[in-house]
Specification:
Distance between the termini: 54 Å
Number of helices: 7
Oligomer: single chain
Strand content: 5-15%
Structural class: mainly alpha
Shape: elongated
Largest sheet: 2 strands, antiparallel
Order of helices and strands: HHHEHEHEEHH
Length: about 180
């Protein structure tokens, strides 16, 4: 019903511009699809059958992960939200989506961009012990590496609600793929 109401408003106010109508309809499709995934996160582990599902699932994954972590980095504890609701953290997959097709929030963490990069490059890993692990490839004697070395052995910041805690299998995968 909400989708139909929005379609009427778009038609009424943007009837003169087919391009604007199409852009708004595309946006609505994404918003409503993403909302359906947010209400039913178990669907985020199912395979993708249409390209349009990818964008909606990605948006739902981001929203659910960031909200679960209260917009706080799981490693650094940093949390910053601008007045216009932009966040410092990103939703990071534990097992890469390309490998797992899994957008369930338990396959994700909230990380700052630099720590997301470090995890994706297998320099740091959250383990099934809920602590951060450092790749042995990181030279602790190099001063520029201090920011990574300080994470080694530190506990992960976890969501308050245990249903959103990282999946053990995903943490095991991440630790097993730490750069050696």
């Amino acid at each position: 019903m909400a989708f139909e109401a929005a379609a009427v408003v778009i038609s009424q106010y943007f009837g003169h511009s087919p391009a604007a109508q199409q852009a708004l309809h595309d946006y609505l499709d994404l918003a409503f699809s993403s909302g359906e995934y947010e209400k039913n996160p178990e669907k985020l582990t199912e395979g993708i059958h249409e390209p349009s599902q990818l964008q909606a699932r990605s948006a739902a994954f981001r929203s659910l992960v960031l909200e679960a972590y209260d917009y706080r980095c799981s490693a650094s504890r940093l949390r910053y939200i601008t007045p216009d609701y932009r966040y410092l953290v990103e939703a990071a997959h534990l097992v890469p989506f390309a490998e797992s097709q899994d957008d369930h929030p338990t396959n994700g963490l909230a990380l700052t961009p630099n720590l997301h990069w470090a995890m994706d490059n297998h320099l740091i890993a959250p383990g099934p012990d809920y602590h951060w692990h450092l790749s042995p490839a990181i030279d602790a004697l190099v001063p520029d590496n201090r920011w990574l070395c300080e994470l080694d052995g530190k506990p992960l910041i976890l969501p308050r609600d245990s249903q959103w805690h990282p999946a053990t299998e995903a943490l095991e995968w991440r630790l097993a793929n730490l750069q050696r």
